[in-house]
């Protein structure tokens, strides 16, 4: 059985680059885009090398990126996949966006990439009508709990918590899956508050800029 795992911020996600760092090397730019089925194996390898993430089969990611690409997001640097997020809109509750798995490479070189990836994915779905964002998080994952609460504050939304799946339902040694539900979120925004969409990029030296990925 797979479990949903929320973003795992690395040390690079919590440390700002110094002026000396940015002067020493050109800014690395991450491009956010929707995944394609052919990205599935690379994402599987990233999952395999990320402690704490359940490793599903390569086929599951290939299939996911065929059927749920519009609810998922990749981060690439110079064409290399350095982060991913998978999610879906619940069939029984289409206004709810559930984040299933997400991770970033520890060597991506982009501060706050895991946080930006989560917020970009959540905002894309909010712009498409989602009023709630859900993720299951273990109690000891303080970093992602802060990410969820930060996003909720930005959207003036509440965060409700409850045990979704008790440990007894899962494999030996598995923790309770605690559901964190953010919402209700406001409707689609206009003007400068518009959500990042496919092609959004971010770099070490600047903020977020709309930019189409070059083929």
Molecular structure report:
The protein is α+β, with helices and mostly antiparallel strands. The protein has one domain (11-188): 3-Layer(aba) Sandwich (Aminopeptidase). Helices cover 27% and strands 28% of the residues. The protein is built from six helices and nine strands, in the order H-H-E-H-H-E-E-E-H-E-H-E-E-E-E. The protein has helices spanning 11-14, 19-24, 40-48, 58-67, 113-127, 142-154; strands spanning 29-33, 73-77, 80-90, 93-104, 132-137, 158-165, 177-183, 200-203, 208-210. A nine-stranded mixed β-sheet has the order 6-7-5-4-3-2-1-8-9, with helices on both faces. Helix 5 (113-127) links the parallel strand 4 and strand 5 (132-137). Helix 3 (40-48) crosses helix 4 (58-67). It is globular and about 40 Å long. The termini are far apart. Mean pLDDT is 81; it is low at 1-8, 10-25, 192-198 and 204-215.
Summarize the structure.
The chain is an alpha+beta fold and 215 residues long. It has helices at residues 11-14, 19-24, 40-48, 58-67, 113-127, 142-154; strands at 29-33, 73-77, 80-90, 93-104, 132-137, 158-165, 177-183, 200-203, 208-210. The longest helix has 15 residues, at 113-127.
């Amino acid at each position: 059985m797979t479990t949903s795992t929320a973003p795992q911020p690395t040390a690079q996600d919590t440390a700002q680059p110094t002026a000396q760092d940015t002067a020493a090397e050109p800014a690395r730019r991450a491009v956010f885009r929707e995944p394609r089925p052919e990205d599935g194996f690379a994402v599987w390898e990233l999952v395999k090398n990320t402690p704490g993430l359940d490793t599903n089969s390569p086929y599951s990611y290939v299939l996911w990126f065929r059927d749920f690409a519009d609810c998922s997001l990749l981060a690439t640097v110079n064409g290399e996949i350095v982060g991913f997020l998978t999610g879906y809109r619940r069939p029984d509750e289409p206004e709810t966006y559930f984040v299933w798995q997400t991770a970033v490479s520890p060597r991506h070189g982009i501060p706050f990439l895991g946080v930006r990836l989560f917020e970009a994915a959540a905002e894309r779905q909010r712009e498409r009508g989602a009023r709630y964002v859900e993720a299951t998080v273990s109690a000891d994952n303080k970093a992602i709990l802060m990410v969820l609460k930060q996003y909720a504050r930005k959207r003036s939304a509440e965060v409700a918590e409850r045990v979704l799946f008790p440990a007894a339902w899962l494999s030996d040694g598995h923790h309770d899956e605690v559901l964190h539900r953010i919402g209700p979120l406001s409707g689609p925004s206009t003007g400068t508050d518009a959500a990042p969409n496919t092609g959004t990029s971010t770099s070490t030296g600047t903020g977020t800029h709309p930019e189409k990925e070059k083929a």
